[in-house]
Amino acid sequence: MPRKHIIVPMHIWQLEDINVTERLVASVVYGYSERGNPCFMTNTGLSKLLRISKRTAQRAVNTLLDKGYIEAVEGSQRRQLKCRGCLGGVDTSVQGGESPVSTRNNKINTDSKSNHKMEDEKRPIHWQQVRDYFTWINDKERTQHSGHVVSWAKDFFTYYDARNWRNKHGDITRWKPVAEAWYRRSTKNVPQRAVQRRDEEQVRSDIRWHRRRAEAWAKNPDKAHMAEQERRYADQLEQSLMQGGR
After folding, report:
1. Dihedral sign (CA 77, 123, 182, 82)
2. CB 94: neighbour CB atoms within 10 A?
């Protein structure tokens, strides 16, 4: 059944640390959580529903995850989202006007949001969160590593999860700088292999070029020395390929 409307709860609309798009995404997730279900919508689904780009939807989800308003459900093949307790809120739209939200509820929600945010900064909930962060870096820098981010994210999460999120300096207190360093190291291997292939192709092309010049000069007896020089150039390049193990 097609969706007829999106309800934005007042306690989400009044959040001042997120923008309008992020409030709409949070409201969509809240609609599922309110019925006791996780939100199964992908970034593509959210982008189509809200008439925004996929990158904008992904950025909004990442912001809500980072701020601790939503969390990813563990144990599922596809990413599923649900609201944390800090978005449970208090319904103010009661008959006869608005009921004030107590200071105690504000304090509980604030403390819960702060604790969840600190927890998320220490370690990702699962490898999909790392994947989204790597994708964000790739999109921001407009590089061509999108085909590698899934394997890099899985390797990163598996490596540090097995070590209880510790490195040689001790406990990891913020996972994103560590993940970015992992991403940078991983990207170095990709262009190097590509450059090596291009270098080899260029060397072989140069060899063919020198061979052709040698054949052309050899047709003129007066240019025999130049033909010999071109052959030496080609031989030297072939030797360099052999020494390089190519």
Report:
1. positive
2. 9
First and final CA of the chain: distance in angstroms?
60
Task: Give the angle 183-25-3 at the CA atoms, nearest 5°.
Answer: 130
pTM, to two decimals: 0.38
Residue 21 identity (one-letter amino acid): T
Q: Is the pLDDT of residue 106 over 80?
A: no
Q: How many residues does the chain have?
A: 246
Largest CA distance in the chain: 108
Residue 167 has φ and ψ, to the nearest 5°, of -130, -165
Cβ neighbours of residue 111 closer than 8 Å, sequence gap 6 or more? none
Paired tokens of 208: 């063919």
The position carrying tokens 């809240």 is 30
Tokens standing for 82? 């649900």
